[in-house]
Design brief:
about 375 residues, alpha+beta, seven-stranded mixed beta sheet, about 50% helix, elongated
Length: about 375
């Protein structure tokens, strides 16, 4: 190799090295530029996000300020007009209440009576600007409805009274005097309706639901009140009070197509009063035999099978028999009379020996009421 060749190789190597170095430098510069662009882009994005958030906050602040300014811009006259209108609305609400109450207390139409009563049961008299310090409750309007329905049909026996020192109604029976007195106790929840309740004992004589059109009598409560608590009152007076309740129930059936369960108040000769226990303990009927003999009444075997009957006054027949089968007993009590007018309740109140026998064996003989209503 000549000296000139060596110089050419050295020169080529140097040029190659410089080209490579230049390429690396360009690559580093390109990467650096890209990195700076990415950083710049992220910075710009963050700045934009912060700017949008700040803008939104500013708009909210401006909106709140705008509302405040809008309220602040009301003149005193405008404020008083709003205030005055709110009072007018409250007073108009009170006037609407009086219209319903006028209708409830004055109408002779049974449909209007029910319509006004149902409006008053849920009516809210007070508003934010007008309140009425003297108010009756839905319980009172139930009593007023009951009293007015009897009045429309020219039926007496119920006396509506008001407390002297506050707004509260109660009713008493003309035949029984000032005690016991009764009120309606409302049922909460989805069931609704109300119980006609003795205020002293808390006994629920019947349940009434105007929306579901039903009335149900409670045999246990009637026995506790009329056969036990009011034992010293004459049977005629107690039956006069009970007849008022029966009349009310029949009005509901006739005027509003109610369904009714009269229970031991039922007078139909075909009625069977089913005892609490379908299978009576041995000796239950024998105890009635002894009680009837002491009272000079003759107990006879029931014509239809296992049981007994007693002939009472005016062709009234009291019976107790197993109307079931050998494998499924079903003891029932019956009362039959020529006019279909005598209920088991009437028998219990008029014949001491039957009442005493019934009460002594009450855990087994108790007549069943609607279990869905009277636990």
């Amino acid at each position: 190799m000549t000296s000139d060749d060596k110089r050419d190789l050295t020169s080529a190597s140097a040029e190659s090295t410089e080209a490579s170095t230049a390429k690396d430098v360009h690559s580093d510069q390109t990467a650096s530029t890209a990195t700076k662009q990415q950083q710049s882009s992220r910075t710009d994005s963050a700045v934009a996000t912060d700017s949008e958030a700040a803008s939104a906050t500013k708009k909210e602040a401006e909106s709140g300020t705008s509302k405040e300014k809008k309220l602040d811009t009301l003149t005193p006259s405008q404020r008083f007009r709003i205030y005055n209108n709110n009072i007018k609305d409250g007073l108009q609400n009170g006037i609407q209440f009086t219209k319903y109450l006028d209708q409830l207390t004055e109408t002779q139409d049974t449909d209007e009576l029910l319509d006004s009563a149902t409006h008053l049961f849920d009516f809210k008299m007070d508003t934010a600007f007008v309140t009425f310090p003297h108010q009756y409750t839905a319980s009172d309007y139930y009593l007023l409805f009951m009293s007015r329905l009897l009045e429309i049909h020219e039926e007496k026996g119920l006396i509506l009274t008001s407390a002297a020192d506050h707004e509260e109604l109660s009713v008493t029976f003309d035949a029984l005097g000032t005690q016991p007195d009764f009120k309606f106790v409302l049922v909460g929840g989805r069931n609704g309706g109300a119980f006609f309740t003795d205020k002293a004992s808390g006994l629920h004589l019947f349940y009434m639901n105007l929306e579901r059109q039903q009335i149900r009598f409670n045999s246990k409560a009637f026995t506790d009140l009329f056969a036990v608590a009011l034992a010293d009152q004459s049977a005629d007076k107690k039956m006069a009070a009970i007849d008022t309740l029966i009349t009310f129930a029949k009005d509901l059936q006739r005027d509003y197509h109610f369904t009714a369960d009269y229970n031991l108040l039922e007078t139909d000769n075909n009625a069977e009063y089913q005892t609490k226990h379908p299978a009576l303990p041995a000796g239950t009927v024998d105890k009635l035999f002894v009680a009837s003999a002491d009272s000079h009444y003759m107990l006879q075997n029931a014509p239809a099978g296992n049981g007994a009957i007693i002939d009472l006054e005016d062709d009234l027949v009291f019976g107790i028999a197993d109307a079931g089968t050998q494998t499924a007993p079903k003891w029932v009590i019956t009362t039959t009379d020529p006019k279909n007018q005598i209920s088991l309740m009437a028998v219990l109140l008029n014949y001491d020996f039957i009442r005493q026998w019934y009460l002594a064996n009450r855990d087994d003989l108790e007549i069943q009421s609607d279990p869905l209503i009277f636990a």
